[in-house]
Amino acid sequence: MRVVALEEHFSIPALVKKIDPAVIAKRGFKGRKQAPGKPSLNDLLPEIGEVRLKSMDENGVTMQVLSAGGPGPDLVPGAAGADLAREMNDQLAAACAKHPTRFAGFACLPMATPDACAKELTRSVKELKFLGAMINGSTDNRFLDHPSYDGLLAAAVELDVPIYIHPHLPPPAVHEIYYSGLPDGADRVLATAGWGWHSEVAIQTLRLALNGTLDKHPKLKIIIGHMGEMLPVMLARLDEVSSLDVDHLKRKPSRAILDQVWITTSGIFSQPPFIAALQTFGIDRIMFSIDYPFAPNAAGKKFLSQVNLSPSDMEKLTHGNADALLKLKA
């Protein structure tokens, strides 16, 4: 069966070195512990070739849609950030061109300079044939609902491509209040993949709904990962508790999200969250992803082997929904 995975990552170390190390450290990036006997992320992330393809073949992944892992151009303001985004996108396009049936790309954008984002997204889609963009969390304490990003959202609508909202490290002030004072290691886990990443994307998505941004751009298409970033279990409660206080929207908050947001399975390989996502968003809005190389392709293969869906619904999960949203051709 054709399997498309669309939250899969890469890096270009030579370009990351152009970013001031002090800026990278201030944003909270630290080295990760390496599991004994496992391949290094520093080796896997930059490799877009035979090693990656071999792992895909061994685990039944037909295509990866690639996006840049941080640190990235969102840390660099002005023309330098725009230039860095352009370089990263050009190099990704060159890598994809070598294996056009196996790799495709999401653009990275100079989010620290909102006025440059629409231009780079348009170039990436029209010239590089990218399928949309991935943005990482907040930038300078701004989320996508900030008015400065209205031009970017309008461009995504005009181009008819989605924006994938990916987690980022919490800003220093948030980290200090929510995640400090814990044993070393526990703070990182809680702030990132154990909880913080997912709550942050959920908040950004909810802000798009509650601020009226989705109403303003009703054709905007958003993707979020990790089985919906905890939103499937909260949408009904959100509608219930907001009914008396939120009267400026054209739709219930849950309706706006269900109308305009797609979710992926990235990094979550157990059945309960998948069932919640399925019952809330429906099979037509769920797309398979793995989160390679932060999660192994083998985990994604095992997850698919355990999913109990009809053949037609399995086709939607593994490739049909992604093909339709991203306009992919088998």
Written description of the protein model:
This protein is an alpha/beta fold and about 325 residues long. Helices cover about 45% and strands about 10% of the residues. It has 16 helices and eight strands. The protein has helices at about 15, 20-25, 40-45, 50-60, 80-100, 115-125, 150-160, 170-180, 185-190, 195-210, 215, 235-240, 255-260, 270-280, 295-305, 310-325; strands at about 5-10, 65-70, 105, 135, 165, 220-225, 260-265, 285. The strands form two sheets. The chain has a five-stranded parallel beta sheet. Strands 1-2-3 form a three-stranded parallel beta sheet. Helix 5 (about 80-100) runs parallel beside helix 6, helix 6 (about 115-125) runs parallel beside helix 7 (about 150-160) and helix 10 (about 195-210) crosses helix 13. About 45% of the residues are buried. The mean pLDDT is about 95.
Q: How far do the termini sit from each other?
A: 11 Å
Indicate the mean pLDDT. 96
Task: Using the alpha-carbon principal axes, give the shape.
Answer: globular
Helix content: 40-55%
Strand content: 5-15%
Number of E strands: 8
Unreliable stretches covering 5 or more consecutive residues? none
The radius of gyration over CA amounts to: 19 Å
Largest sheet, in brief, is:
5 strands, parallel
| Element string (H = helix, E = strand) | EHHHHEHEHEHEHHHHEHHEHEHH
Strand order, sheet with most strands: 4-5-6-7-8
